[in-house]
Amino acid sequence: MTPEAELKEFLRKPKNDAEPPLPPHLGNLPHATYVTAALEYLDDYPFWVDPNALHHRRWDEKARSYLKACVEVDRTSLASIDPTYDANLVQQRFIHEGLFKHRWALDELASEMIALLKLVRWETRTASAVATPVTTGEGRDDRVADKVRMRDENCRLSGVIRDKNRTDAEALELELSEVPVATMQVAHGLPFAMGETSFCLVEVLTGLPITTWGLTVDCVQNALLMSSALHHLFGSFKLYLEADPNDIDIIYIRGRRSPARANPRSVLFGISNDRGERCSDPFALINTPLRPRAVESIADIDMKYFTLHKFIGDIAWMCGGAEPESDNEGEDGEDMKVLSAENWLILKEKLTCCKDFLAQNDGLL
Questions:
Q1: Rounded CA separation 86/79 (Å)
Q2: What pLDDT band is residue 271 in, cutting at 50, 70 and 90?
């Protein structure tokens, strides 16, 4: 029997606590073999089926798609955070530690990964100024949002002017100039409210130690000012930032092209940039550089946070969508829309269970 066939045969065995989770010699198979075996195992895994799920997406389909996305997502962009990063090795480690060693309890793993994505999705689309207070062990530093507004002044994506209190003379001058004005919001790459437990799950997915990208995300390097309309698209991962591979000082605004629902063009059609151009027009917004900050003495954004933001968005859109209506989960979905302190504690308990679950017996975390 070939090692590949032996691996597939071993994965089909019923749980036996007397056996090792995976024989050591099967941990050294080629990368492609591991990926294929993982996807085939997920295709055949007997996820729980809700017999009452008539109008919503069936749990088994959703769990399978999320875990397959966690396996297949492209991790190569994460090398920009750590030059020594090996995307194939991290992918294989996630399969080995996250899937194969816990292959009898993938419903739990899927549930907690989905909870993580929901939390990031909800918080990234919520402005700092209006975010529902949550319990994360420490308070939000209000000075961060103030510094971001001072540093950026206007929308860093479109260049439109921030709507703020002005004298009558200033307001008249602005009106005569016909320069677009919009309400601004402070948007984060990784949300402050995620907390340490969720960061540990990001570490599981990416293979990057938390110390690589910072234990605190409540900083000006993790936030920028943008119009509320563009923040909605950014929070849904339809817009994202990407550094120029040849010049890290140049950061481009990108838009997703697939799936079709992820393409922001139809919404951008109704949004203008500072030149009065529709943001859906070529090079009016998409594929243009991020606008420079107004105050250079305040630190600019650090792309590591926004690279991770794009990575999580990749997973979300690979499995159906990054918008609240994508899941359509009734009461649970409603909890994500308004994340009260009570709901946060419930979700944090779920995520903590997942952290313990993954760390059991193998020192994964």
A1: 7
A2: very high
| 177 exposure class (CB count in 10 Å sphere: 0-12, 13-18, 19+) | exposed
191-238: pLDDT as tens digits: 766 666 667 778 888 988 877 776 677 889 999 999 999 998 998 899
Token pair for residue 203?
């570490």
- The burial of 90, by beta-carbon neighbours within 10 Å (0-12 exposed, 13-18 middle, 19 or more buried), is given as middle
Question: Residue 25, Cβ neighbours under 10 Å: how many?
Answer: 10
Which pLDDT score is estimated for 201? 73
| Dist. CA 360–CA 297, nearest whole Å | 46
Q: State both tokens at 80.
A: 């920009």
The DSSP call for residue 45 is -
- The residue ranges of DSSP E strands in the chain, in sequence order, are 161-162, 181-182, 184-188, 223-227, 239-244, 247-255
Interacting residues of 191 by C-beta distance below 8 A, sequence separation 6+: 119, 120, 123, 124, 126, 217
pTM for the full model?
Answer: 0.80
Task: For residue 99, give both structure tokens.
Answer: 């899937």
SS3 of residue 161 by DSSP: strand
